[in-house]
Every structure is written in C-alpha cells, then in structure tokens.
C-alpha cells in the first residue's frame, strides 16, 4: 500500500518554513498555474539546452537530467554540481560580473532562496503540479520556488566495521570515546545540507555539542554526499552528518552501510528549485521546472535518488523508513539566512578548518 | 656575376613590423603581470568602502586563523624542498653520471611524474594511504594481522601532505640537477684528476661545487612549488583538519567573499618568494651561470660495479611513490566498483567509464575547454617567452632588465593569488573577461611565463648573436630573423617549452578554481568538484584520460616533421 | 657610389668611450683595414658601420646619406651590406646551399634566378660539391668560404669582415688572405676589414687604419704605415721594431747612450726626452767598429738564438738599453762578445710622444 505523506506531519515539521521562507510580502497575485504546452516544448527545443546548477549528488543529478532529456529530446541538460554554498558563491560571483549562465537552480540550503528572492533575481513560475498538489508551506506564494526535494541529514555506519547493536543511536552517542578517530562529517562552508543541519543541531543541541564532537578527531570532508562515500570505502566507521539519500542508494546497491535516525531528531533539509530571471534559456528552464515537479520526476527522485517528495501522488519506496515515522528537527531557512556567516565562523573556529 | 644594384628588389623604405610586434609583446607582458598585482596591492590596502586602511594586515597578523596556516605552509615548503633535494639529487647523479642500468627509463619516468597533477596524485594517495580504506593500510593489516583500527600510513596529516607534495615537486629538482651534472664538461674533472685529485676528491672539490647551484636552484623551485600548491592541500589538509595559506585564501572566497583579506593574505607569500629569490642571487652570485655556460666535452660516466643494481633498486623504490603506486591505485579505482577494493571478479566494472562518458554532462565541455586552453596557452606563452627572452638576451631594447624581471615575477605569485588578482582585475571595466576562456588563458600564460622564459633565455645564451646578426645584415628584419634563424635553432627548447606549458596548464588548478564559471570549466576543476563529493571512480577515469592525452600530445608535437625531427647540428 | 664616411664617430658605454671620435673616409671600391689589438674599438667601429650599434655621437654616411647618427640609426637590414663574422655565423640548421641562398630569398627573387646566382658564387668559391652539406660537416676553411659566398652572393655595396681568418690555421690563413683580395678585385665592393694581424692587413688593404684605445692612430697605405709609423704605438704594434728612448738635441739629432744619432721622421723638439724606432733587421752588427759612417754604437751580446733563416740577437747598450736585432745566419757573435751596431739614419724614425 502506497504510503501517502501525511500533510499534517509535514505541516508540523515544516511549520517554520511556512512562517518564514514563504512569508515574504506578496507583491501581486500568485502567477497562474502553467501547463506544459506544445508551444513551450517547441520554444524550449529551439533554445536547445538548459543549465541546472544544483547541489544534489552528481550521479543523481545526472540521472534526473538524462530522464528529462529522454522525455524531451533535443534539449541538452547541463548539470553544474557542487556544494550548495559554492553554488551560492558562484552565482553571486557570476551575477556580479553580469554572467548569466544559470537557468534553474536547486540548493540544499533553502536560505539561499530568501536572498535570491529578496535581490529580485528569481522569475515567478508556478508549474501546474505545484499549484495543484504541493502543500502551501512548500511553495513560494509568488511562485519563485518550491520544494523540489526533501531529505534528512542522518547518522550512518559501515556495517562491516560496526555491529548493529554497537551502532550509535543518537548524536549524544557519537561523543563516546570509542568513536574517536572513526567519525566523518561534512562542512557547512561548502555544503548547504550541512549548513542547515549545523544550524538545526546548534539550535537544538547547543554549540557545546560540536565542541565535544571536535575532540573526537573527526575526519572533515566538504560535501554532504562525501561522508556516505567515505563509509562505503571503509575509510570511517560512522558519519555524524550527511545525506540520507546517498545511504539509501548505496545500501540498495549492496554496500555495507546503514542509516540511523538519531533520537534527538534528524535535521530536515529542504532543497527548492527556482528559475532565474536572467536565465539564458527561459523556456527550457520553465519546461525543466515543470518536469521537475511532475509526479513522474518526483517518483524518479524517490526511486533512483533516495530522496523524499512533497508531491502527494508519489509513493515511498519499500524498505525505507517512511518520512512520517521519523523524528526530525525543525527546519528554518530564515534562521539559517540570518546566522550563516556566524555558523561558518564558529564552525571554523571549533574544527579549525 | 654583375654588380647589379639591389634597389629593384629591395625598396629603400618599407614598413618593418618588428618594433610594433616586439613592443606589443612587452606591453602585453606588463599588462598581464602588473594589472593583477596592482589590483591585489590596492585591495589589500582599502576597506569595503574604498578608504585606505591597514586593517586587513592587522587582522592577518593578529588572528591565529591566519598565522597558523602561514606556519604550516613554511613547514610544508621547507620539508618538501629538503626531501626533494635529498632524494632527487642522488637520483639525478645516478641517471646523469653513472652506468646504472635502465637510466633512460628512470629518467623518463621521473619526468613523467611531472605530468601528474599534484591534486591527482593526492587523490591517488588517498586511495593508497587513507588510514582505514587505503590499499596499503589494508595490505598492512592483512599481512600483519593488526587490528582494524591500526594503520601504517595516514595521508591525512601534515606529514602525508609533505610526502605527496615532495612526490610531485621532486621532478623539478631532478631535471635541474641532472641537466647540470650532464653539462659539467669532463675536462673540468679531468683537469682535477691530472693534478692528482682522486675520484672522490674530484667529486667533492669540482663536481659537487659545480652542481651545487643547480641543487640550490632546485631547492628554491621546490620550495616555491610547495608553497604555492593548492590542489594537494585542499584535498588532504581539510580532512586532516588544518589549512595552508593557499587553502585559507581560497576559503576567504566562501560566501560572503572577502577579497580584501585574501589580497592581504597573499602578500606574505609574495614577500617570502621575493626574499628567497634575492637570497639565491646573493648565495650564488654569478657562479650560477658557470654551469650553464660550459658545453664542451661529454660528461664523465662513473662505473658503479656491482653497486649499480643497488642503485637501480633505489631508483625504482623512489619511483614507486610518484608513479607506480598512484597510477596503480587509479587504474584499480577506475575499474573497481568500490575504489578501495582491489579489482576482482566480483567488483570489476566499466561503470565509471560509462558514467564519465555518457552521464557526466560536463565531461565534453571540460575536455574541450582544457584542450583549447592548453593549446592556446602553450602557443601564446611560447611566443611571448620567445620574444621576451630575445629582447632581454640580445638587450634589444631599453628596460630589457625590467622586462626580464617582469617575466620572472609570476614565480613569486602563487596561482591562487594570481587567481584572486585576475578576478579583481577582469570583473570590472575596461576588461570584463570573467566568464570567458580568456581570463583562464591569461592566468595560464602568466603562470607559465617564468619557467618558459627561463628555459628560452638559457637557450638563447647558447645561440651566438652572430647567427642573428648575419641574417640581419643580409636584409632580414628582427622578426624575420627570429622566425627563420633563431626559432629553428632553438626548436628543441621551443618544443620543450611548448610541452612544458601544455602540461603545466593541464596540471593547473589553483588559478582555475578562482576563475572558472560553469561554461569555462576545465578538467582539473571538474576533478576537484568530483573529489568534493567523493566520486573517486570517475576521478580515476578522468585522471587516466588526462594522462593519456598529455602523453599523446607531447609525443605528437615532438614528431611534427621539420619541427621536432632531428637535424644534424654543427658539432662545435 | 657607396663610399663609407665616418664623422667624429663616438660610442660610449657608461663613461668609457670605446670608439672615440673616429673620422675616416673609405672611398668606393677600396679595402680599408681596421688594425689594432683587441679592445682597441675596431670591432665596435665595424658594428657601428653595420648598424648593430648606435653611435653616441658623430655620424656614418654611406654614399653621402646619413645612415647612423645618435638621433636615428637605419637598421642593418636596410644598409645593403654584408658581413663575415669571426665565428662565420653559419646557420647550423641550413645546408650550404640554403645558407648561401638565404639573402637572396629575402629579396624575393625568382627561384630560378636564386639558383643561378647561388650556383655561380659556389663555383667561384669552389663550394659546388658541398652544396648539400651542413656547416657542421665542413672543415674550417670550407666554412670560411661558405661565409664568404653567403656574404657576396647578395652583391652588397659594402662588405664588412670581422677577423675572418682568425679561426684558420696558418697555411689556410695565408691562402684565404689572397682569396679575399682576389674576390674583392673581382667585384670591387667597398670593404671594411677588421683584424689584429698586420700581415693580413698588409695583404688585403688599400688603406690601413691603426686603432688604439678607440682612436685612429694612423691612416695610410700599408707601405706608409710600415715604413713610417706615426707613433710609438703604431711602431710597437706593427712589431719587429726597437723603440729606443733618448734625449732630443734638436736638428734631427737624438742622444742615445751618450751617442748622438741622426734621425729621419717627425721634427723633434729642441730638447727633452724622445724616442726613436728602428726595425730589428735594419740594425747592422759587426765585431770591428765600422768606419766612415754615422750612428755607430758599442754594445754587448746578451743572447744569440739561431732561427735557421736568421739569427735573433739581444744586445745591450752602455746605458743598459736592450735591443733586438735580426741578422743573416752567418753573422755569428757569441754571447758576451763586444760588438758595434750601426743604425742607418734614414731607418731611425723619431717618434712624437
């Protein structure tokens, strides 16, 4: 039986999202729901390509791009994948020099959309699916962006190196001396996931948690996609943060990794998609945006990407813990946006990198 | 034969393009180097609002977050250059002056290790010596039965970084010293022998002092290379939990970017380099040229007897580190499902190739950009270096000394600093080049200039000015002479320079990482991005292809008929 | 007409004048030798004429037109000159034929014409069989002839030679001296020839300019220079002369070792120190005092060396002055013998100081 996402649950966990990220002053009526018309497809085809800046793990991103290309032949999809913080920095750098290369952006740091919207860089576009099916707290009322993907930052371990009964159950467990030198984690200076997670953990657990964690001789990597891969290599036994979806993918490939949802709650990460106003391929961008939020693509990112979807018509994949059964930490893009610089500075101070 | 007047075939007045071309080259060089450094200096001295301030420097010296990387960098550079000298100088001696077997192969492999970008080497060594998943550590545990937490090597340490840096800096020292040793004419040593110097006395009193400038120069190059290296530290230092100056400067460009601090942080590197270059000049004085000057007589080969096998063993042991082990690990990772597992029937896969060629949408773009940039930078860089070394070695214009200094100056500018400078320069009018391949081209040409200039400059010294003057008095302009007489005479050096720049550009990451955009991505950046998310299999495939391309291009260029084809040269 | 005229030509490096106020006229079709020791400025003068060096002051005219002046220097390639270098400067990457044809191809002559001219000059210089050799495969004499052919084939108005024979062995050198003169007589270009070898200068030159410390000490025909050196320097440089210090007694008489010698040459001061020059083989030597002649001095044999074709004596005058004398081999006086010297007055040349 397909497990429908409980709207109530989503509301609960992402309440602040609605209260902040989507609560920017409404300038006008939200844009009309846009359908994928033959004219749009034709115009997109004339443009011939679409450039998607994203922070989703590269193989997943490329698969999404390929599925789009398969559905709409003739539109080459170029994936520019790097950590969300670097995506943000890159777009800033490019726009400062009036280089408009990006069509559609996807960031794992939802706070970035607050900035881009505030700076007037985004183009309003409301795909029909978003208008009809997405919960209001997962779409911008002005149609600037919507939650393309949702996932968690989790604890995980290598099942060859750690027995299930010895595995940590909570963030607090990671402070046990037995994990010293065995933990890997991502960096909020590069990864939006880790930035969001660090914000939520610092808020809920306090900075002193990180100070203690830093004493565990943590192996520091950049992307939130890298800690799962370091587990897969067997380089480290446990990851303190990182993408849930990578663990799903790896586990389903038969790699010896297992996810742990910490008892304190797993940091919730939301990765919206938005179109830039100065997109060089505006029609292809709209088509791509519509495609991304369609049930087909959303089911695709669940099945092959290990991600969670806000589209109510999607079904969760058996064998993965249903979203509604997981205790999560509340996300708060506005909070992240306000404190990002402080988080990076404190983090660098504590972990010395 | 009649004494026919030449007027008919040679008009008295005609426009000579030589000066415009020469001066334009000089001007381009000035612009290339002075503009970014100028902006760098300016930015280091102003605050956000554009007012003069020393605050950036104050922050630099008072914050441990800046002082510690500086100390780390110094430790890294000193150790790496020492290791390079201690290892490379004996190896160079074995190759250049003894009858060790497989000398040619050892030399070729040592040179080949230069082709390996340090960041690729660093990733390969991650595969080998990461404390838990590293292949060497796995083998160590399997062989000794050590516990699952024990390891032999840990690459994620300062020592590990020093090791990797040395691996890929050593070729510089090796080539310098081997060439110097080969150029010491046998008669200098014969003169010592005839006066009663025994073999080791001769070595001690003549050979070593004559080779010393080269060793010292090598040590300096190694120091500078290690100091300015970005890729290897960025890959190894972050997991190890420390910064070097280059990674620190890079991190200053995290949002919100702090270019003024980055500019200020670049200055210690600049100052250090300039001091070192002055120091070298002071120590060597004019002796440094003596070795370059001597050309007569073949080098004397010393018979090692039975020791030659030990020597070969030593050489192969050294080569294990920069060549055999890393490429073995990369090959393994390219074909293995899990990079940290040895290939077996169970995990052999072509998935990584499939991913790189058919799924990764940036592959084609990055290869295209890289090849365009390599070819252009190598060609333009060689031409400018040729013209500039001509101007300086023939003292053809006033300020030739200044020009020579300018061409050498980028040595003092770490790639990442240059990247910052170029970014500051070319993101504002009149030249908005950021986002185009041009800015990368400028960066690569600038970075390659010192080495290209030095190489061609010393080549010029070996070509008598008479050969050029003979051409000019017969009616050829400067440029025509350069094209028809000098360049062909220097062709070996010209080709070597071209290849050197080509390879250098492929290796380049530090400036590229500051300057690329999604449309102007190059392979080194692509690899760096892949490393960020830990896609080691794809990196291995890209790295191996890159190596194959490099080797193919170098081999091809050396075979262009009439260009690289060997001609009989005057033997005096 | 392609006469070459130097007017007050000066070249300074820093404060040192390497060429110091040289004025010289080289009429069309003549050979002028710049003769002097190394460092006398002769090569710099040649390079000034060629246009490789710019004058600090003064000017150079070719055929009445100023080609070099401090204000403007015509580049060498426009001077219609050729030059032969001490090193020959043959391009090692070109065959003999290519080396020789180079100057012609620059003039964009027709191929057939180039081939014809090259063949002709190779014939003249007896190089035809070597046309496809590379310079590295030639002997010194052959290389020299290639250099000559390369310089002559373009039919220059002016030919410059910089120590062209100094790298050849003695026999070849003698042969080539005559060869150069022969070719010059055949084509009659204006020639400037730099050498430090007086025999070379004597053989080839119409006029010799002896240079010292950047200045022309004496300009004249080989006969004049040899027979009547105008200065002590010229006398010494041309060699085989004794320079004897004495006191002028006026009226062409000089007191040497207490004997009054009558001298020819420059008019002497009434009194004070002066010098006279007399060639080694112009001094007569005898055991008995010659009677009925003037300029007779007593001396003692210090050294007697048998040279086959002659004898080389060192004798000492009463005041300790040592003189060298070359005599026929038959005139044999043992070491320590007292002898009489006779110096014909017309051979004693008083030198201005």
Outline the fold blueprint.
The complex is a heterotrimer of chains A (353), B (572) and C (353).
Chain A: H1 7-13, H2 15-19, E1 33-34, H3 38-47, E2 49-54, H4 58-71, E3 76-81, H5 84-96, E4 104-106, H6 111-118, E5 122-123, E6 126-127, H7 128-133, E7 145-152, E8 155-158, E9 183-185, H8 192-205, H9 207-214, E10 219-220, H10 226-233, E11 238-239, H11 244-252, E12 257-260, E13 266-276, H12 282-293, H13 295-303, E14 328-329, H14 333-351
Parallel strand pairs in A: 1-6, 2-3, 2-4, 9-10, 9-11, 13-14
Antiparallel strand pairs in A: 4-13, 5-13, 7-13, 8-11, 8-12
Helix pairs in contact in A: 3-12, 6-14, 8-9, 8-14
Chain B: H1 18-44, H2 55-62, H3 64-97, H4 103-115, H5 118-129, H6 135-144, H7 158-183, H8 186-194, H9 199-228, H10 231-240, H11 245-251, H12 259-284, H13 288-293, H14 307-335, H15 351-359, H16 363-393, H17 400-408, H18 415-426, H19 437-461, H20 465-473, H21 478-489, H22 491-507, H23 512-515, H24 523-532, H25 536-557
Helix pairs in contact in B: 1-12, 1-16, 1-18, 2-3, 2-12, 3-4, 3-7, 3-9, 4-7, 4-14, 5-7, 5-10, 5-14, 7-9, 7-10, 8-9, 9-12, 11-12, 12-18, 14-25, 15-25, 16-17, 16-19, 16-22, 18-19, 19-22, 20-21, 22-25, 24-25
Chain C: E1 4-13, E2 16-26, E3 31-35, H1 42-50, E4 57-62, E5 65-68, E6 81-84, H2 96-106, H3 111-124, H4 140-152, E7 158-162, H5 170-187, E8 190-195, H6 198-204, E9 207-212, E10 215-220, H7 222-227, H8 232-238, E11 241-250, E12 253-256, E13 259-262, E14 264-265, E15 272-279, E16 284-286, E17 296-306, E18 311-317, E19 322-327, E20 338-342, E21 349-351
Parallel strand pairs in C: 3-8, 3-9, 6-7, 7-8, 14-21
Antiparallel strand pairs in C: 1-2, 1-4, 4-5, 9-10, 11-12, 11-15, 12-13, 15-21, 16-20, 17-18, 17-20, 18-19
Describe this protein with a few key phrases.
heterotrimer; A: 353 residues; alpha/beta; seven-stranded mixed β-sheet; 14 strands; B: 572 residues; mainly alpha; 25 helices; disordered C terminus
């Amino acid at each position: 039986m397909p497990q429908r996402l409980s709207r109530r649950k989503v509301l609960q966990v992402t309440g602040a999202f609605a209260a902040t990220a989507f609560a920017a002053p409404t300038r006008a009526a939200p844009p009309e729901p846009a359908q994928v018309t033959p004219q749009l497809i034709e115009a997109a085809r004339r443009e011939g390509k679409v450039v998607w800046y994203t922070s989703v793990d590269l193989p997943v991103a490329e698969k999404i791009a390929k599925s789009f290309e398969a559905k709409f032949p003739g539109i080459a999809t170029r994936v520019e994948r790097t950590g969300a913080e670097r995506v943000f920095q890159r777009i800033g750098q490019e726009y400062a020099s009036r280089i408009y290369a990006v069509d559609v952006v996807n960031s794992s740091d939802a706070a970035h959309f607050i900035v881009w919207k505030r700076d007037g860089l985004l183009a309003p576009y409301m795909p029909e699916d978003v208008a009809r099916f997405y919960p209001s707290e997962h779409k911008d009322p002005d149609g600037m962006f919507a939650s393309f993907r949702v996932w968690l930052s989790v604890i995980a371990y290598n099942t060859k190196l750690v027995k299930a009964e010895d595995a940590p159950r909570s963030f607090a467990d990671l402070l046990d001396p037995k994990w010293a030198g065995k933990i890997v984690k991502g960096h909020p200076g590069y990864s939006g996931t880790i930035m969001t997670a660090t914000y939520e953990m610092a808020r809920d657990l306090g900075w002193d948690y990180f100070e203690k964690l830093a004493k565990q001789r943590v192996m520091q990597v950049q992307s939130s996609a890298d800690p799962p891969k370091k587990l897969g290599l067997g380089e480290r036994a446990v990851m303190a943060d990182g993408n849930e979806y990578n663990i799903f993918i790896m586990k389903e490939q038969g790699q010896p990794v297992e996810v742990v949802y910490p008892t304190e709650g797993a940091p919730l990460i939301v990765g919206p998609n938005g179109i830039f106003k100065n997109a060089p391929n505006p029609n292809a961008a709209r088509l791509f945006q519509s495609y991304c939020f369609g049930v087909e693509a959303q089911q695709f990112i669940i099945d092959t990407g290990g991600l969670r979807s806000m589209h109510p018509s999607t079904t969760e994949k058996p064998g993965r813990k249903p979203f509604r059964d997981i205790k999560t930490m509340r996300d708060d893009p506005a909070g992240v946006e306000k404190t990002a610089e402080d988080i990076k500075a404190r983090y660098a101070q504590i972990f010395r990198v | 034969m009649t004494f026919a007047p030449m007027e008919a075939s040679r008009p008295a007045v005609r426009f000579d393009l030589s000066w415009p071309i020469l001066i334009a080259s000089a001007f381009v060089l000035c612009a290339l180097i002075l503009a970014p450094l100028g902006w760098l200096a300016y930015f280091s001295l102003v605050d956000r609002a554009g007012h003069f301030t020393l605050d950036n420097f104050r922050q630099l010296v008072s914050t441990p977050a800046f002082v510690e990387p500086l100390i780390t960098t110094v430790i890294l550079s000193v150790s790496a250059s020492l290791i390079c000298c201690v290892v490379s100088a004996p190896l160079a001696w074995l190759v250049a002056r003894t009858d060790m077997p497989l000398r040619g192969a050892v030399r070729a492999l040592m040179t080949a290790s230069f082709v390996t970008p340090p960041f690729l080497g660093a990733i390969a060594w991650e595969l080998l010596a990461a404390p838990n998943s590293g292949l060497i550590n796995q083998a160590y545990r399997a062989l000794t039965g050590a516990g699952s937490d024990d390891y032999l090597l840990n690459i994620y340490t300062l020592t590990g970084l020093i090791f990797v840096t040395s691996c890929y800096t050593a070729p510089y020292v090796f080539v310098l010293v081997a060439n110097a040793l080969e150029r010491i004419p046998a008669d200098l040593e014969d003169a010592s022998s005839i006066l009663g110097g025994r073999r080791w006395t001769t070595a001690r009193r003549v050979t070593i002092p004559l080779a010393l400038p080269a060793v010292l120069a090598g040590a300096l190059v190694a120091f500078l290379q290690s100091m300015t290296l970005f890729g290897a530290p960025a890959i190894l230092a972050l997991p190890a939990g420390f910064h070097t100056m280059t990674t620190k400067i890079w991190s200053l460009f995290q949002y919100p970017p702090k270019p003024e601090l980055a500019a200020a942080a670049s200055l210690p590197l600049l100052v250090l380099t300039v001091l070192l270059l002055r120091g070298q000049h002071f120590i060597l004085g004019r002796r440094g040229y003596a070795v370059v000057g001597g050309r007569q007589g073949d080098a004397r080969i010393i018979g090692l007897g039975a020791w030659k096998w030990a020597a070969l063993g030593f050489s192969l042991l050294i080569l294990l580190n920069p060549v055999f082990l890393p490429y073995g690990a990369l090959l393994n990772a390219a074909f293995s499902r899990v990079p940290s597992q040895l290939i077996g029937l169970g995990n052999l896969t072509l998935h990584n190739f499939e991913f790189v060629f058919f799924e990764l949408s940036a592959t084609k773009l990055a290869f295209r950009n890289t090849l365009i940039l390599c070819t252009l930078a190598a060609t333009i860089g060689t031409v400018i270096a040729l013209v500039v070394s001509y101007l300086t070695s023939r003292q053809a214009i006033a300020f030739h000394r200044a020009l020579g200094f300018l061409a050498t100056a980028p040595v003092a500018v770490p790639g990442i600093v240059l990247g910052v400078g170029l970014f500051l320069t070319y993101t504002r009018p009149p030249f908005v080049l950021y986002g185009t391949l041009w800015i990368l081209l400028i960066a690569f040409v600038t970075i390659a200039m010192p080495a290209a200039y030095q190489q061609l400059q010393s080549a010029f010294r070996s070509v008598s000015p008479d050969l050029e003057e003979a051409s000019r008095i017969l009616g050829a302009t400067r440029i025509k002479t350069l094209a028809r007489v000098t360049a062909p005479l220097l062709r070996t050096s010209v080709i070597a320079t071209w290849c050197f720049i080509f390879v250098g550009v492929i290796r380049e990451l530090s400036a590229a990482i500051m300057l690329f955009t999604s449309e102007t991505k190059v392979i080194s950046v692509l690899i760096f991005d892949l490393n960020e998310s830990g896609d080691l299999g794809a990196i291995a495939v890209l790295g191996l292809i890159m190596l194959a391309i490099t080797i193919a291009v170098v081999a091809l260029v050396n075979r262009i008929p009439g260009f690289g084809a060997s001609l009989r040269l005057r033997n005096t | 007409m392609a006469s070459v005229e130097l007017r007050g030509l000066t070249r300074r490096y820093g404060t040192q004048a390497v060429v110091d106020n040289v004025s010289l006229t080289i009429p069309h079709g003549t050979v002028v030798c710049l003769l002097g020791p190394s460092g006398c400025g002769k090569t710099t003068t040649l390079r000034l004429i060629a246009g490789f060096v710019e004058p600090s002051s003064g000017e150079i005219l070719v055929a009445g037109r100023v080609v070099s002046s401090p204000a403007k220097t015509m580049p060498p390639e426009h001077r219609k000159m050729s030059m032969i270098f001490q090193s020959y400067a043959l391009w090692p990457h070109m065959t003999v034929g290519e080396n020789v044809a180079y100057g012609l191809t620059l003039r964009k002559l027709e191929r057939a014409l180039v081939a014809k001219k090259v063949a002709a000059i190779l014939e003249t210089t007896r190089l035809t069989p070597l046309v496809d050799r590379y310079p590295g495969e030639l002997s010194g004499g052959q290389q020299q002839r290639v250099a000559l052919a390369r310089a002559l084939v373009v039919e220059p108005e002016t030919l410059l030679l910089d120590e062209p024979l100094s790298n050849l062995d003695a026999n070849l050198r003698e042969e080539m001296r005559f060869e150069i003169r022969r070719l010059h007589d055949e084509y009659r270009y204006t020639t400037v020839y730099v050498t430090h070898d007086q025999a070379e200068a004597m053989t080839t030159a119409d006029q010799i300019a002896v240079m010292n410390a950047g200045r022309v000490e004496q300009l004249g025909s080989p006969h004049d220079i040899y027979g009547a050196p105008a200065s002590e320097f010229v006398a010494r440089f041309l060699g085989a002369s004794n320079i004897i210090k004495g006191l002028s007694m006026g009226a062409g008489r000089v007191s040497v070792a207490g004997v009054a010698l009558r001298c020819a040459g420059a008019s002497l001061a009434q009194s004070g120190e002066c010098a006279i020059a007399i060639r080694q083989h112009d001094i007569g030597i005898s055991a008995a005092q010659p009677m009925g002649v003037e300029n007779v001095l007593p001396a003692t044999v210090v050294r007697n060396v048998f040279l086959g074709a002659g004898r080389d004596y060192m004798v000492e005058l009463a005041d300790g002055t040592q003189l060298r004398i070359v005599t026929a081999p038959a005139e044999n006086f043992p070491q320590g013998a007292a002898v009489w010297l006779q110096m014909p007055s017309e051979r004693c040349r008083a030198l201005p100081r």
